[in-house]
Amino acid sequence: MAGKRSTRRGTVLVVGGGIAGATAAGCLGRAGIEVHLVEKEEDIGGHAAAMGCKAADTCLRCNVCVAGETFRGVRGTPNVRLHTSTRLTALQRNGGPARFKATLTPGGRPRRKPFTIRADAVVLAAGYAPYNPVENSAFGYGSIANVVTGVEAERRLAEQNRITRPSDGRVPERVAFIQCVGSRTEERYRRAEDTDYCSAVCCSYALRIGRRIVQQAAESKITFFYMDIQNFGKGFNAFYARCKDTMRFVRSRPCELRAGRDGAVRVKYAPGAGEGDEGRSVREEEFDLVILAVGMRPPADAAALSAMLDVPLDEHGFVGRQGADAFPALHGEGIYVAGACEGPKDIAGSIAQAEAVSAVILGSLDGGGRAPGDILMNRPLDRRRPGKAGFMRRAVRGDVVVAGGGVAGMQAALGVARLGHPVTLVHAGGDLGGAAAAAPGMLAYLGGDRKAAADDVRRVLAGLCDELKGDRRVRIRRRTRVTAVEGELGDFTVTVSANGRSANLRAGAVVLATGAGLEPTAARLGAGARNIVDMTGLSARMAAGDIPERVALATDLACEQGRAVTAQVLSAAEALREQFKAEVRVYCSSVRVAASGLESLYRRARDAGAVITKTDARPKIGRRDGAVAITAEDAVTGAAVTEEFDLVVAADLAPPAAGTAGGLARGLKAGPEGALQYDDVWMLPALTSRPGVFAAGAARGNSEYRDALTDGLAVAQRIHRLLGAKRIEARDDAAGVDADKCVLCLTCVRICPHGAIGIDREARAASVSAVACQRCGLCAAECPAGAIALPGFTDAQMAARASGRRRLTVFACENSALPAAEAAGLGAKADLIRVPCAGKVDPRTVLQALESGARKVLIVGCHPGSCRYLQGAGRACRRAARLGAMLAKAGVDGSRVEFAGIAAVEPQRMKELVST
After folding, report:
1. What is the model's pTM?
2. Labelling 829: which of 53, 226, 466, 896 has CA 20 to 30 A away?
3. What are the start-end ranges of the E strands in 94-134?
């Protein structure tokens, strides 16, 4: 049971204590809702709690650290009651408030009696079941010792901080990953337990584990057997490129595994192109360890829960509807679905959906638009810091500006309006709906057939438009663009432009839902030729009925494309075959089907007669006698074939040549491939580097239609949490600037991760926003004039703590290293010095620790890429390397100073760091 409860604003029953259930419970509890969180196991956490951090040289975005913090946080969230070792055994509907009567039955010992609660809403977050390959004898799972599942590999990583062989505990040198085990199986080969859909997350988690193995043993050789690489999540393409440098990729599905000598596993497979065995139909290799990348199945009790709650199951047994109107997942009045029980998704996707569901519930309950209470900025009240900090209360504006009138922007505007906030929706075009409205036929994966999918999209968009127009809290400004965002959380000035005139809008928060910001690459290939077009050009020609006999759709030409482009290409291929009877060939490096319905669309397009050619090398496109010739090497057979087409559709989208992603809002740090969301695990679900500025949909990177719907509502929940009380409490210990010392070099302005530093022109010095400042101390560490100080961590205070009483001094980040050290029980083994961020530790402090008697100084912070302050860990790593090099030049052992990355969920790694 958690802490005090506030005045009752409603009661919600959450079924399932995994990442989705814990997130929903935390969001609702903080908003003043009474929450009963029911978990059938002895503790909350689900599958995510058993996963290990997979950070290698940098964070690999597995989000295990985020899950760990979520589970720790929900245990102390006001209004949340935890019922572990308990099941929901009955649910009755009643009229009026508290419409549900739930019977909860405890298990375990001592035996407790069933009891009932009443609730206004129910969130079903029952998780998933990993595929069990024991019934598939071809993989030898259960009979061959060194064949394990990805789930088991995750568990070994969490427990041991490394991957070892079950048979003898050795670190394996030859490791094989086999993808799509039990998933994406053709009907003629399918066993009862197999499925035809893509589980979405398997490529990501397998590649991350492989990267971790290479880091722990550089001599390890990784072989990755795959069908298609699913580039799921932001920054995946760059990560995949790094993997290709250290791993071997074989496009093949192994057909048999057998036990070899000394615990080895023999893998039989058909070699693909480039394997040097073009003349052989089957090859056999030995590996020390084989990891089966098993996918997600519906939870074992999905059918029972479906019957009890009267909610549907989809064709695969997951709970909930699929299609264009599948989210928010409302089933009857007051029942919602969130997380992997609704369909395969990763930790980040489960968090986003749970936050979105929370927004809908808050908006639907009586008084849902009321304030959730004062919001404490920057840190929770129980944060343990040296010294005491006071607080200052600030009034904030409750209204919101949403830039972008597509699916994400419309959903965000409606979400915040339902929660009581005035909204101005700024749309560059005329009609709302964005890309989905312009080409609903290109979203054929959202339905069982093309027409049904397009009709559903039109219906959903029409409903959103009607609700926006009918809501008095929403103002729509068409043919208008947002050109600048200035200010801070609670008080932004948003400059908009229309018809050559500019105006300023005031807002407490800003949502950027402006689309992907990517450009078609067709013009680069065709230089204006009529027979080389992009997807927009193809849509226009289809609308005009101007489709020739032979059509090619090519993707992955400029760079690896994502699910959204794949959806358009496969939708177009199906339509071109069925509607125009054209000969259609699709060229791609992989078919990206990591979204519900995409695998089905892929099979429909093939069944309609579209030919899919997968290529490892980019096809060559040229002209020949008025036609366009494409030469491509088939990735499976290795054969190079040239074919001529009357029309080539270059479907690629790529970032503009000059990146301007971060220019819209001052201090906004951009992410990969033009995304407006910085690539860091803590930027979830729609946060940006600027507090109070949010990114939603394609604007934040690799997204699809349903992601956009989810993002819009998740943004609404986040904004209401910040602005609902119309006041915030900010700590008064923000970094301070000594105006007499400041030389206006602007170093602090450039390096501040959150855009919290501006210029006080009257004082002729830098100025720090108490609201935007996150108290990381990067500016203080980097200021060349020593003009910035962070209260509690001044140079004098840091020097006093670096006493060198023990041989090892550890500067421990309070977000990652300190919790790991405390869990590992290391308080007596080193001088453990708490810092807000590893980036706060400057060379002077390190040298003082060495001079005071420390034989070694460890600076332990977040893994670069998962820093709570975005860039602090990376700066600390580079700073330590430079200092070590300087010491070595001075004749001092440079290894006496070292940086190490760690997550709060890695106590075993912390033990290893200190022991070495």
Report:
1. 0.94
2. 53
3. 100-106, 115-119, 121-124, 129-130
